[in-house]
Design brief:
The complex is a heterodimer of chains A (123) and B (176).
Chain A: E1 12-16, E2 26-29, E3 34-41, E4 44-49, H1 60-67, E5 73-81, E6 107-116, E7 119-120
Antiparallel strand pairs in A: 3-4, 3-5, 5-6, 6-7
Chain B: H1 3-14, E1 20-22, H2 30-40, E2 44-48, E3 58-67, E4 70-82, E5 85-94, E6 97-107, H3 111-118, E7 138-139, E8 145-150, E9 152-153, E10 159-160, E11 163-167
Antiparallel strand pairs in B: 2-3, 4-5, 4-7, 4-8, 5-6, 8-11, 9-10
The chains are: A mainly beta (123), B alpha+beta (176).
């Protein structure tokens, strides 16, 4: 897949600060999940960690869902997460099945799109 | 493309998709957004400059995060099995003794007990300097360090809503 998406991906990492307000900025929920980049080239999908380790096989349902997104090439930055009954993301419950605490299935929370329709969107 | 333009495209791309969602936006007023974080009990927020690009890579000041939850490292003094799975008893060294700081959910399955037994950490008596309000504990020598986040501490210094993040020494426990 990476052969058809021609860039070395260096993920952005936010800087930790005290709560703040900057006019014109936007504020997004911080998801307590697992940051994985989703690469799609045709029907071929990969989920890769920030250290470059592939975890595609762990999330077959997400792979299917990403494969059916529009466009032939796509790179999404986001997190795989599960949410509890209060709709709070729970890192500690990710990857558990049969736990007594009810959660959603793993979902992909996308916060950026870096490549689409053959274009590098980062610049 | 700017961050704001990419967000617009992202929303169109994942609209109606199964299992894929754009990250939730909070109030455009940072103070109100922070109130939402606290009221909902979520981990924090990430503020972004919508006019920024993604070019630099690595640490950036165009994305700033604030966390409602604190982080710490704790000595694991024991483990206990409950219907919802295994939990770790956490402590910190204070005045030369191991002070109890709370119970954190670890996970399900019997692998933890086997792993701990084979690591020869199990001991017959509590390593904590005070009585711990938990029954059925498998006590451990204080050799294993867990990383956890928590929302706050009680007056007795016990962690509120702790979440296990991992062991400080990644090779300390082999679960497979």
């Amino acid at each position: 897949v990476s052969r058809s998406i021609p860039f070395e991906l260096q993920l952005l990492h936010p800087t930790l600060v005290k709560p703040f307000y900057r006019p014109g900025w936007v504020y997004e929920e911080k998801v307590d999940g697992w940051r994985l980049v989703a690469y799609k080239a045709g029907g071929n999908v990969r989920l890769v960690s920030r250290k470059g380790v592939e975890h595609t096989a762990r999330f077959p349902d997400l792979v299917k869902a990403i494969a059916s997104l529009p466009g032939t090439t796509l790179v999404l930055d986001g997190e795989v997460a599960v949410f509890d009954e209060r709709l709070v993301s729970r890192f500690d419950l990710l990857g558990e099945s049969g736990a007594a605490v009810p959660t959603t299935r793993p979902v992909y929370i996308a916060f950026d799109v870096l490549h689409a329709r053959g274009r590098d969107l980062r610049a | 493309m700017t961050s704001g333009e990419r967000r617009g495209l992202l929303e169109r791309l994942v609209e109606g998709a199964n299992l894929i969602f754009p990250v939730r936006r909070l109030s455009a007023d940072g103070h109100k957004a922070w109130e939402e974080v606290l009221a909902r009990g979520i981990e924090g927020y990430v503020g972004k400059d919508p006019s920024s690009t993604y070019l630099s890579g690595g640490p950036t000041r165009s994305w700033l995060k604030s966390k409602a939850r604190r982080e710490g490292r704790f000595i694991v003094g024991g483990v206990v099995e409950r219907t919802e799975g295994w939990s770790l008893l956490l402590g910190t060294i204070q005045s030369g003794g191991l002070r109890y700081r709370g119970l954190v959910h670890f996970g399900v399955g019997g692998r933890l007990a086997d792993a701990l037994a084979s690591n020869r950490l199990v001991r017959p008596t509590s390593p904590f300097s005070e009585r711990v309000p938990v029954h059925g504990v498998t006590w451990l020598d204080p050799g294993l360090v867990a990383e956890a986040t928590y929302s706050d501490v009680t007056p007795a210094r016990v962690l509120r809503a702790p979440v296990f993040r991992g062991f400080a020494d990644k090779g300390a426990i082999r679960l497979t």
